[in-house]
Specification:
Blueprint (H helix, E strand, L loop, with lengths): L2 H9 L2 E2 L7 E2 L6 E4 L5 H12 L3 E6 L2 H13 L3 E6 L5 H15 L4 E4 L14 H29 L3 E6 L2 H5 L5 H20 L5 E8 L13 H8 L6 H6 L5 H12 L10 E5 L2 E5 L16 H12 L17 H10 L1
Parallel strand pairs: 3-4, 3-6, 4-5, 6-7, 7-8, 8-9
Antiparallel strand pairs: 1-2, 9-10
Helix pairs in contact: 1-10, 2-10, 4-5, 5-7
């Protein structure tokens, strides 16, 4: 069984009998916008949606990159057009929706993927560092979803909103105040949109990917796996299963599934995916409660807080397991015993 077939089995999708490399879905006739889709994860999403039959509006800030992305889709028999503009301003969101309608007649799917990084610790982060990341990720998601929702509600046939989050937004990460705030905000908006858009049969979900991209190649812990993927090598089980870390193509199947009719009953969810792992993130919820007649003052808190909540204080950051020792090291340790 191929990796693609395995993904299809896990997600309940059908694999075409005439090919082992393509997942067929009910996306024919659908029209999608994928922001930040010139390369990396966004390109994988756009290519997968097009392979499933959707017409795609590709978005990037680089004309050549956008044109190359469109060419890759059309060369494979898909339909695509490009709109080059930075995500964030309302004008870009309106232009993207207009491009979908003018080129393909409608809009059914929006994937908000565009993003940038300006990593540095809190005390060194400038206003521009913060504003740039929040503008692209958070405001860009808001403006694009707002315009898409207006169009989808006018059409009256439902729709799919898929917003890309991050483990950093779920757990935090050193040096990423701006990125963590934006990605956490995206998931919060998704939960709200799931309620607001339900009557219009528009679903809203977040995908939390972990994959080898330009953003993760700068993380030392992932470098060896990113380098392996760049060389076309298969990532080891430790990366794909223990870390849940894989390629952009590993994530694309989940995005296409959420865009399809098969996911009509799924909304307001944060779905993690990477390598061989598929996960459902919980919503924040109370893990312990306590009551005090008259409320809680300083004295009561200083006396009781540790006994009440000390054992259930929540951790922060992504726990990174120790990678397995190389085979040579294991053999040497056995001999030493």
């Amino acid at each position: 069984m191929t990796d693609v077939e395995g993904d299809a089995d896990r997600l309940g999708l059908d694999v075409a009998e005439d090919t082992h490399e393509e997942i067929r879905m009910s996306l024919t006739g659908k029209v999608a916008i994928v922001t930040g889709s010139g390369r990396g994860l966004g390109l994988a999403y756009a290519q997968q949606l097009a392979a499933g039959g959707a017409s795609v509006v590709v978005n990037d800030v680089d004309q050549q990159v956008a044109d190359d992305a469109v060419a890759s889709i059309t060369a494979a028999g898909g339909k695509a057009t490009a709109l080059v503009a930075p995500v964030g301003p309302t004008e870009t969101a309106r232009a993207l929706v207009a491009a979908a309608v003018e080129s393909f007649g409608r809009l059914d799917i929006l994937v908000t993927n565009a993003g940038v990084l300006r990593d540095t610790v809190l005390w060194k982060m400038s206003d521009d560092d913060f504003d740039t990341v929040v503008n692209v990720h958070l405001r860009g998601t808001f403006t694009c979803v707002r315009e898409a929702a207006v169009r989808m509600r006018e059409q009256g046939e439902g729709g799919r909103i898929i917003c890309i989050g991050s483990p950093t937004g779920q757990r935090g990460n050193f040096g990423q105040t701006n990125y963590a705030a934006a990605k956490a905000g995206i998931v919060g908006m998704v939960r709200t949109w799931a309620m607001e858009l339900a009557r219009a049969n528009i679903t809203a979900n977040a995908v939390i990917p972990v994959a080898a991209t330009a953003m993760t190649e700068t993380v030392p812990f992932f470098k060896q796996f990113v380098d392996a993927a760049a060389r076309g090598e298969q990532m080891p089980p430790f990366a794909r299963r223990v870390l849940g870390f894989g390629t952009p193509q590993d994530v694309a199947g989940v995005v296409a599934f959420l865009a399809s009719d098969a996911a009509a009953g799924i909304s307001g969810q944060a779905i993690g995916v990477g390598g061989d792992r598929l996960a459902l993130w919980s919503h924040p919820q109370e893990v312990a409660t306590a009551f005090q007649d008259g409320g809680w003052g300083y004295e009561q808190l200083s006396e009781d807080f540790d006994s009440l909540f000390g054992q259930v204080l929540q951790s922060v950051g992504q726990p990174m397991p120790e990678p397995p020792a190389p085979a040579a090291d294991k053999a040497e340790k056995v001999e030493q015993r």
